[in-house]
Amino acid sequence: MKKIARPIQLLMLLSLLLSFALPAAAESESSASAENPAVGEILIEAIPGDAALTISFPKVDTLGNAADSFEISVFTGEPDPAATPVVIAAESVKGDTVEYTANKLVNNTPYSVSVVGKTKDGSIVSNGNGFGVPFRMPGKMPGLVVTAGDAQITVTFSKLPASDKAATYQIHWWTEVDKKTKEPKFQKPIIIKASDVKNKTYTYTFKKMKNGTTYHFNVFAEDTSGQILYLSQDVTAAPAKAKPVKANPGKGKKK
Fold this sequence. Notes:
Residues 36-124, 138-228 form the Fibronectin type-III domain. The protein is mainly beta.
């Protein structure tokens, strides 16, 4: 069963967005004159966060134009001409890079970003367009403990607070790797409804496990949209028979 492969690969892909920014191309006017200078390109980076996008770009565009102010718009679909952009004065920015964080966005939704650089008289000297997809980076699955016994393994984790709005807890496990794809051959996952987790901790016991075999476990929690809220790393355990304890009768007292 490879159900875990989808969210893990998606997570890896989204994590790469944190390392590689989302540079965007801007349409620039090619003609130039003393009265109407060429419009330069603003190279935008849109870094995703939890319900947010951090937008950054250099003060000076690719043609060397330095705008006096920047108008930033973040939107879905087509831009709204009636919407008021966020205006940042270049003189208020310390350093060579402008940064702005758009909050209260909807996770997993594509957003377009538009930046227009203007002079004090309102002339456009630079512009740029970009995009980004905000998402919540999964946290570490709390209270996870995997314990091996004789032909069994117990998996224990902590209940999440109601504010996280978890819908399910899932335990995905495997023992072998596919020879061709080199991916884990996942067995049928254990899916637990969040409403069934009544106590502060929850324990699931795997029985009839093969002693001496190493089992791998991935435990995570999802919300109703399928977004992963918390995720564990690969945790291993190998069941084994309990070693017999030698009797030690000791020496009796002489009467």
